[in-house]
Amino acid sequence: MHIKNTNIIHAKKSLGQNFLKSKTALLAMINAGEITSKDTVLEIGPGQGALTEKILETGAKVIAVEKDDRLIEFLNEKFASQTQNGQFTLIHGDILELDLSTIGLKTVDYKLIANIPYYITGLIFRKFLSGDIQPSKLVIMVQKEIADRIIARDNKESLLSLSVKAYGTAKKVMKVDKENFSPKPKVDSAILLINNISKDFFDKISEKDFFEVIKTGFAHKRKMLIANLKEKFGTTAQTSQNNLQKIFQDLKISEKARSEDLKLEDWKNLIKNLSI
Ligand code: SAM
Fold this sequence. Notes:
By secondary structure, the protein is α/β, with parallel strands linked by helices. The protein folds into two domains: 2-201, Vaccinia Virus protein VP39 (Rossmann fold); 204-273, rRNA adenine dimethylase, C-terminal domain (Helicase, Ruva Protein, domain 3), CATH 1.10.8.100. The protein is 35% helix and 17% strand. The protein is built from eleven helices and nine strands. A seven-stranded mixed sheet has the order 4-3-2-5-6-9-7. The chain has a two-stranded antiparallel ribbon with strand order 1-8. Helix 1 crosses helix 2 (50-57). Bound molecules: S-adenosylmethionine (SAM). Residues 15-20, 44-47, 50-51, 65-68, 94-96, 115-117, 120 line the site of S-adenosylmethionine (SAM).
């Protein structure tokens, strides 16, 4: 029997299925991605195809990856004509396990749109920002608090905000209240846009050093940054305690600064001066 009625598919909690009902939010995701007929869009978790439908309406080519086998036949039927004319390709699988090179995607040659379960947000950032095949833009629905932390609404940076901003500019597009999803989740959401994605930030420093230093900097939140750095880097002759103080002075970073006070460029300058 073919599933014609979307209500027959009961949302699976284990796959974070909260389907987006708000047309305003769906269109805001499309607009944030500036999607046109020239684009190839990778959509993660098409679900019942609400967002997919809107992306297809722009004329863009869509490759959608859905893990839930119950939705595959439904989506194939819903988008049969677009599948036939080559505009839509559905992949049944787990996005976290998918090798992007096998589906013909090239770096910054596609846009990523995702309304995904929030427990994989971090893994999606890692795969698509620090991975080799980056999208040019990433539009993602995240928990509202995560969006606020990434854009550093309170002007305090975090490991998360720095790890994202090193790869692109982050913007909170709009808040999406929990009432706009079915079933209604426990938390409010927000649409986050990460634009101008590249690895240009890593022209003078390596990704490995960047993550090592910021993780060290944030290791003990209550300590001052210089104390955190001293623990790991202050033992070598090149980066002794005295040298750390001098580096901070030269870079005009207060010795009393905490990790959350430093901006992305401060970290870059710091890393360039540390012997790691
Ligand atoms: N995009 C739809 C919408 O906006 O209504 C559905 C969103 S729902 C929050 C998340 C979707 O991601 C579900 O369809 C779920 O089955 C799918 N999903 C969950 N984990 C996944 C994974 N690892 N890989 C691909 N799809 C996944």
